[in-house]
Amino acid sequence: MTKQHELMVTAGSLQECSAYIDAGASELLIGDAIYGLRMPGALTEAEIREAVRMGQARHAKVIVSMTNVMTNDMLRLLTDYILFLKDAGVYAVEYSDPSVLAAVKTYAPSIRLHWNAEMMSTNYATANYWGRKGAVRVAAAKELNMDEILDLKRNLEIEAQIQVHGMTNIYHSKRKLVQSYMMHQGRPVLGGSLDKERGLFLVEADRAQEKFPIFEDTHGTHIMSSDDICILEDLHLLLQAGIDSLKIEGFMKPLGYNAAVVQAYRTAIDAYVMNPAGYQFREEWLDRIRELQDPQRELTFGFFYKEQVY
Amino acid sequence: MEELLFKPSYRGKRVRLSKPELLAPAGNLEKLKFAVHYGADAVYIGGQKYGLRSNADNFSFEEMREGVEFAAKYGAKVFVATNIYVHNEDIEGIEEYLRHLYDAGIAAIIAADPAIIEVAQRAVPGLEVHLSTQQSTLNWQAVKFWKEEGLPRVVLGREASLEEIAEIKNQVEIEIEAFIHGAMCSSISGRCVLSNHFTDRDSNRGGCCQSCRWKYDLFEDAGGQDSEPEESSTGNAMARFPLFEEEDPAFTMGSKDLCMLEHIPDLIEVGIDSFKIEGRMKSIHYVATVVNVYRQAIDAYFEDPEHYVLRPEWLEELNKAANRPLNTGFFYDIPDHEDHIYEPKDKEAPYDFAGLVLEYDETDQTAVIQQRNFFAKGQEIEFFGPNGTFFKQTVQEMWDEDGLPLEAARHPLQRIRMKVDFPVAYFDMMRRKH
Fold it and tell me: Is the ipTM, as predicted for this complex, more than 0.90?
């Protein structure tokens, strides 16, 4: 039997969950306002329960993001939240801080643990270490290149999840950088929102055509990439390697766009699984995405074919 | 482990019986010697691999051995930063490298990635492992996890407040190290790949090019209440609304440097076991000055905690080596608009390291000085040494090695004999305002 490849997408509402399942997603990544980090929308507990029910009825697994940077204060409600997730029947939790790992193992050992330390999930030895601590999947850093990803997969004792499409976070601070800047100019932001809906972005002098989205929420200031990863053309390399879950980051994108992206990747995955040997990428799959792509954000291979130095 | 007495008072305040460790950066062997001589209890250095300062003048194993030997004479320890986030290609060689560190007499490594931590624990059990600040540990459950993993010390994330540190200390018995002075990442440590995106340099493997201190323009897509549209030459495609005016400074993420000198009692009473100074890339003058000041403050507190007062000359000293404005980071509150740097660029530190005292001859009150920067007759200079030795004087007569009189010291590392107003000693430093 051919290997199963999950197609994951982040969702910010029940409406999005439903649309993305329709489009062909098999895993939904959702989160709340406290433990979730940079989610397209914060789901309430009632909505998380509903998402799980929806997923169970329509064959999609619900994974909850808990990758926020954990403080003492956030520990106070942690046990309750984990017990709630267990009761709701979520499939897995994404964690980066050991406090979340420890709480899930203690209070909800049936929930799968996925290790996602963002840009710090960079090698197989560390992923296998977390595997021995209880994780069953690693969400690899978006800054790894294709060779590193293939090598990672070859040496992993747990599942691998790779982001194949969408923007990435490139900077996260607990400081209020936009508020501070406006205040320094003598033009304080009086109750005005600085969140992702505001459409704020940075431009660096030598890269005048690139827009780096920036926003503030209760977790601090976040800066996002100016381009969107799209590896659809070379998806077969990841499928050949047996990557377990292919992630589409839906953050800061309209529902229609994400649904089209999910559909395109679903088509490609199904075509590959049907006939791996005869699989060929078809330009028309990408055309639909290109039509909907924000003209000010380039579709790129991200770090897949970059060589980094240090 | 520090010995602590718990006293039922506010915020876990405690009376300490033993001093916290003063931990200083040492970018090379010479800086190590100065840091130790000026009062550091331990220094941290970088080796040729696995460290986050790939541009620094890093130590060979031979230099490490010499540094360890030098430090041991003062009862000081040497730690090595192996704080990168490892990539697959870095895995082979970790064990061999760590064995070399241990053989060189290194007391501990500072590591963030379990790929390094695990190897150290398995293969080199004598080498202590301290969890790096790059793990951004900010809660006691995570600290407890690392303690159960066998780590004796955690370096907290730079976002930890005094209140949070107090809770961590109360919940977990483990050594806590915290940065108390120096430059800071404005991001949560590790959670920044600006360098990777802008220059293809991997910030989490030492390639950081400090893009956070570059200048940016802040815009918004749609016209909000705070902005007017910008004239666009390319039609409507890039219509954007600037959130700044012509004369405004640019947006930047650069933060002011941390300085907790004025809050030594808080740091001691909350129970921080190791006070860490940042700056493996900083000068000898910087390291010696900063270590010297904190050494005196810590010693003064333990001399008489009840009557401890901050001495204004300590702050004056620190400012002689500072090249950025200072603040208290996250210890008391989340930084605001006064805690970031919007000025065009860093200023130079106001003082130069002008010469190093090699010898003193009390018969004729002269010293042999090794030249480190230009100085000339008639200029005002300062001498300082460990334990607050300090005086100012004017450069008087001086001679070169052949006894010929000199008007100015122009040659790097030249040995110069000069008249001094008060006794000085080997390792004392001479600085000059520029």
Answer: yes
Which of B363, B358, B362, B356 is closest to B412 using CA atoms? B356
Question: In chain A, what residues touch B58 (CB-CB under 8 Å)?
Answer: none
Name residue A266's amino acid: R
Assigned token pair, B136: 């951004």
- Among residues A96, A134, A154, A103, which one has the least CA distance to residue B112? A96
Q: Which residues of chain A make contact with B220, given a CB cutoff of 8 A?
A: 198-201
Average pLDDT (B153-161) is: 97
Residue among A119, A130, A178 minimizing CB distance to B193 = A119
A180–chain B Cβ distance below 8 A for any pair? yes
Pick from A75, A192, A303: CB nearest B226: A192
What are the tens digits of pLDDT across the range A6-43?
Answer: 999 999 999 999 999 999 999 999 999 999 999 999 99
For residue range B315-346, what is the model confidence (pLDDT) as tens digits?
999 999 988 999 999 999 999 988 888 876 66
pLDDT of residue B238: 55
Asked whether the beta carbons of residue A203 and residue B216 sit closer than 8 angstroms, the reply is yes
Arithmetic mean of pLDDT, A249-270: 98
A106 touches chain B (CB under 8 A): no
Those residues whose C-beta lies under 8 Å from the C-beta of residue B329, and which sit 6 or more positions away, are: B158, B179, B184, B258, B260, B335, B339
A148: contact with B, CB 8 A cutoff? yes
**Tens digit of pLDDT for each residue in B264-303?**
999 999 999 999 999 999 999 999 999 999 999 999 999 9
Are B217 and A72 an interchain contact pair (Cβ–Cβ within 8 Å)?
Answer: no
Three-state DSSP string of chain B: CCCEEECCCHHHCEEECCCCEEEEECCCHHHHHHHHHCCCCEEEEECCCCCCCCCCCCCCHHHHHHHHHHHHHCCCEEEEEECCCCCHHHHCCHHHHHHHHHHCCCCEEEECCHHHHHHHHHHCCCCEEEECHHHCCCCHHHHHHHHHCCCCEEECCCCCCHHHHHHHHHHCCCEEEEEEEECCCCCCCCCECHHHHHHCECHHHCCCCCHHHCCEEEEECCCCCCCCCCCCCCCCCCCCEECCCCCCCCECCCECEEECHHHHHHHHHHCCCEEEECCCCCCHHHHHHHHHHHHHHHHHHHHCHHHCCCCHHHHHHHHHHCCCCEECCCCCCCCCHHHECCCCCCCCCCEEEEEEEEEEECCCCEEEEEECCCEECCCEEEEECHHHCEEEEECCCEECCCCCEECEECCCCCEEEEECCCCCCCCCEEEEEC
